[in-house]
Amino acid sequence: MYSEWRSLHLVIQNDQGHTSVLHSYPESVGREVANAVVHPLGQALGTPSVAGSESLLKTDKEVKWTMEVICYGLTLPLDGETVKYCVDVYTDWIMALVLPKDSIPLPVIKEPNLYVQSILKHLQNLFVPRQEQGSSQIRLCLQVLRAIQKLARESSIMARETWEVLLLFLLQINDILLAPPTVQGGIAENLAEKLIGVLFEVWLLACTRCFPTPPYWKTAKEMVANWRHHPAVVEQWSKVTCALTSRLLRFTYGPSFPPFKVPDEDASLIPPEMDNECVAQTWFRFLHMLSNPVDLSNPAIISSTPKFQEQFLNVSGMPQELNQYPCLKHLPQIFFRAMRGISCLVDAFLGISRPRSDSAPPTPVNRLSMPQSTAVNTTPPHNRRHRAVTVNKATMKTSTVSTAHASKVQHQTSSTSPLSSPNQTSSEPRPLPAPRRPKVNSILNLFGSWLFDAAFVHCKLHNGINRDSSMTAITTQASMEFRRKGSQMSTDTMVSNPMFDASEFPDNYEAGRAEACGTLCRIFCSKKTGEEILPAYLSRFYMLLIQGLQINDYVCHPVLASVILNSPPLFCCDLKGIDVVVPYFISALETILPDRELSKFKSYVNPTELRRSSINILLSLLPLPHHFGTVRSEVVLEGKFSNDDSSSYDKPITFLSLKLRLVNILIGALQTETDPNNTQMILGAMLNIVQDSALLEAIGCQMEMVRSIPHNNLKSHSRTNSGISSASGGSTEPTTPDSERPAQALLRDYALNTDSAAGLLIRSIHLVTQRLNSQWRQDMSISLAALELLSGLAKVKVMVDSGDRKRAISSVCSYIVYQCSRPAPLHSRDLHSMIVAAFQCLCVWLTEHPDMLDEKDCLKEVLEIVELGISGSKSKSSEQEVKYKGDKEPNPASMRVKDAAEATLTCIMQLLGAFPSPSGPASPCSLVNETTLIKYSRLPTINKHSFRYFVLDNSVILAMLEQPLGNEQNDFFPSVTVLVRGMSGRLAWAQQLCLLPRGAKANQKLFVPEPRPVPKNDVGFKYTVKHRPFPEEVDKIPFVKADLSIPDLHEIVTEETLLFFFDVVGGGS
């Protein structure tokens, strides 16, 4: 970018502005002169009564002479007050560009830019490392840096020349302290963060006030490359680039794009007055100021700087021991921080960053965390977490870390660091890329070179891989083989630094490499529909996946975990040629999902999240065998990752042959999974694979029937002449035309390569029923999902032995018994919901398989469960006596449970007896209604008014048609058709009154009436019985006054009254 511009590095080296005329005199003379001249000035500033008075220096000549003395005083040892007074005087004078004071000499006030330029050059002497009293020097350096910050922030009259001198001054002092190898506890280690922070802040201010020319940018890039062995350099670079990116996205993509939120402290580094064009130019230049971040993974490059070369050779010219320079042992951690910073930028452009409430910039989920280590000879740990947020002091107290050498170390983490990440709750959803995100090619054009190089760090390349000529894939002239060689550098890279000992650096660059791999996976997973990606990027990405998914001798657990965590939607993005990595993903899943503990990954990642991502990938792989069938998958590196040349791992195989492996992974994952959400996904996948297999077999049977028909067009493609060729692993591939593949070639070898649908169904029933009554019965979400799975399996149209079906029904019954028998305090709405779901599952099984009720044991068990749900107890438990209904007190678990049990009983009593019905089990209710009866009636007299309706128990409606329908069964018999509508659905019944069997004919035999029976004269004894309206006990009850208040009729009616009444009645008639 700056190749045509010259660097200012030689200008800085040849500048003698930091020397004084006193350097020409003996040291004792300079010391005496400095002490004599500086003390009055410093004491005047330190005395409050004198500080506000006028300066002792009046003329330009006096000021310049005094500055020569102060320049020399800044080089003196720190054993006295001279250096402190020099710093006090200069930090006071440079404020002439901010707010002039009386203590500042008048010539400095008149020409502040000229004098400040000289002062800045003199202050370089303060930052030269000294052997004694490091704390005093650190304190004085911080005083100068704070004054520089205030000068750059508040000065409004600073000229361009002063800005340029200020930038060169900051570059020079940073290079003095940060370029040499770091000494533990030295001034450079203590001032690194402040030095680089002030440099970047002042540089951003200079971009706003007077944009630096290209030579200054080139010089800064060259010098920063010499400081990269300091963690603070990469950390501050990440802060600035994140803050600039936040501003860049705001005006580039508009307010609808997800904001990239950074802490206020970092956002304040960007001057508010910086315009959009300046932000864009500054952002791109700062992005490349660190040079190539991948160089951090190569100690030979970092240690090849001039300052390192000077330190590596002692006076005799012999190389020093490498362990004397422990800063190189921090390169893996620094490399990881650089990759984390780039990853943050990529996620910001994708729009998937997540805002946080703490003090660190937002970083997305699924990150490897590698906290900073203060130990010298200890490998930094890979503290893998789910979501990258800042680890503050409180978090670090409870966090646990591990190292590659299993040694415990303490970690120091800045509260504003964007490069560390604690745990994230597994319930948080994965953020999705923004709809207006840039294209994959655009992001890779910007960051792809760094990320791909970082992803292949310490992977040795071999050329000349021979390919099988029989493979029908894209032909290539040469391929590459990546073999893991730990962190050892190749001999070619060692030539540049013969003093570098690779054995001192163990295999610990995996964290940064894993971060790069995860970032690339997220980039490719963000592909839009119809978006084209350059083949060069796709090929490198597939090679990255193949290398990262290795599980043999070259396995790298951080990289493997990062690829899996960041690739769940990979197979749903329609990437060209993605099928080449399917076998490698399957092998990786075979390593992760059946492992219950995942002990090899616990130090890098949350095992639950790793399993969840693996399950999501498995879900996207399960349809491939059914979809592609006997199509062969392409192999990029055939047999080159295995020591055994005959291994089938890297051999071309058919997709259909992968089905058995996928099913076994699914079964193994279910047996080892403990997380409820992950378990539910596995159960859903299990139902899908069984249903798809059953459907595929059904289509295959239909196709075989079509082929058996004479003169069929498909007859020429019989199994004997289909051209089946053997492939590795016992798979087969027919060589039939493509037009035949969707239905025939895909299906005819199904039984040879994979389990049948019946086998999958039986395996699923056995595994689910076993765990339903053991591990899962306490968990509501898993129980509901398992019951739903069993209900779905009941509807699969596959011939299964009655014993397996009975096992499913018995397990559901046992589940209901256990849940109902739990103590009363444990009964809750959730518990009753599980019982209701179990009854519903039972209804589905009985509806889909009504023949199960023909088995006495099964019917008895189901009715006992129904009785338990309705009454709360069984009539007979174990060997106890039978308790009848009248002796039991109804005590159901809840009314919901009782209703569910009654619904099951209704299913048994009303629906199953009428099966199989013409409409099938999908419609348990009758399809006949009034309209249907009128439509198919042969008698024109029947209409809608012919029906009579009745209501029973306010719950059942009866529609009765008391007329024959005119069909052959009615004849002349009285007929009635009843439509019953109730809670169990609609039922239709037809009844007839037949005095003779339907098969008898009236003309076969004359009807001879039965003779009258002969009366029996012997009637026995005749008893005289007096009939009473009330029993005799009524007479024994004494009367009360109320009974006597109404007189009897014979007491008030006399004979004369009766005669008179009859006369009146008779005369009136």
From TrEMBL:
Start-end of Polar residues biased regions: 369-381, 392-428, 712-737
Species in which this protein is naturally found: Ursus americanus
InterPro entries linked to this entry: RALGAPB, RGPA/RALGAPB_N
Protein's name according to its UniProt entry: Ral GTPase-activating protein subunit alpha/beta N-terminal domain-containing protein
Span of domain Ral GTPase-activating protein subunit alpha/beta N-terminal: 136-255
Top-level taxonomy: Eukaryota, Metazoa, Chordata, Craniata, Vertebrata
Highest taxon of the lineage: Eukaryota
A GO molecular-function descriptor: GTPase activator activity
Region Disordered: start-end pairs: 355-437, 712-740
